[in-house]
Design brief:
The protein has 124 residues and is an all-beta fold.
């Protein structure tokens, strides 16, 4: 059974940092591209970032580019998202996702599995 478990969320002041983790099991993690997506209160699911299977290529939405960093540890089946220079508009539930398909503009088309999410709240 494919499982994705996110952790690391919390309350951070604007300008602060946070590192999210996603532990994967039930599939060959090192062979899969992975993604982070988020959902703000009352809004739809939005793509945040992708990383390829060996970590050599990454991509980011314009809203987080230059502030967030996606990475992975294939030896420990773990995906990360480092949030820096956090903004109030980054407040959302953050999910990791497997086999996400999206348009060139970042519109989410489909995904195989996502975790239960970890809440990130940016507030003073």
């Amino acid at each position: 059974e494919v499982q994705l478990v996110e952790s690391g969320g919390g309350l951070v002041q604007p300008g602060g940092s946070l590192r999210l983790s996603c532990t994967a099991s039930g599939f060959m993690f090192s062979s899969e591209s992975m993604s982070w997506v988020r959902q703000a209160p009352g809004k739809g699911l939005v793509w945040v970032s992708d990383i390829n299977s060996d970590g050599s290529a990454t991509d980011y939405s314009e809203s987080v580019k230059g502030r967030f960093t996606i990475s992975r540890d294939n030896a420990n089946n773990t995906l990360y998202l480092q949030l820096n220079a956090a903004k109030i508009e980054d407040t959302a539930m953050y999910y990791c996702a497997k086999e996400l398909r999206r348009s060139a503009g970042g519109l989410i088309l489909s995904y195989h599995t996502r975790g239960q999410g970890t809440q990130v709240t940016i507030s003073s």
